[in-house]
Design a protein that fits this description.
It is a single chain. The protein is built from 2 helices and 4 strands. Helices cover 40% and strands 25% of the residues. Helix 1 packs across helix 2. The chain has one domain: RNA polymerase, RBP11-like subunit (Gyrase A, domain 2). It has a 4-stranded antiparallel beta sheet with strand order 1-2-4-3, covered by helices on one side. This is DNA-directed RNA polymerases I and III subunit RPAC2.
């Protein structure tokens, strides 16, 4: 556990002894359902993912247990990374679209 003044990691990887790289639980600190559900959706779009789900251990804790299980020996870190990048791309597109439309309306008055 991190002492005072030390930063705790944003992401931890938890893997059972003897488990392959395709079955991993990631612990995301300082996150909630907003990221959990959005990321789960993006990861599940990947055909190599057999299972993806998340849980919040307790309402007073701000961390997510995010589980990924893949097919074909693909490491679970790959669909996690792709899901995060895809989600970032979608968020950027929404932001750009909002800014263009907001600026257009604001400037056309």
């Amino acid at each position: 556990m991190a002492g005072e003044g030390e930063k705790k990691p944003v992401l931890e990887m938890v893997q059972a002894d003897g488990a392959d790289e395709g079955c991993v639980t990631f612990v995301l600190h300082d996150e909630d359902h907003t990221l959990g559900n959005s990321l789960r959706y993006m990861v599940m779009k990947n055909a190599d993912v057999e299972f993806c789900g998340y849980s919040i251990t307790h309402p007073s804790e701000s961390k997510i247990n995010f589980r990924i299980q893949t097919r074909g020996g693909i490491p679970a870190t790959e669909p996690l990374r792709k899901g995060l990048n895809d989600l970032s791309d979608v968020c950027q597109h929404v932001l750009n679209t909002f800014q263009v439309r907001f600026c257009f309306r604001f400037n056309s008055n």
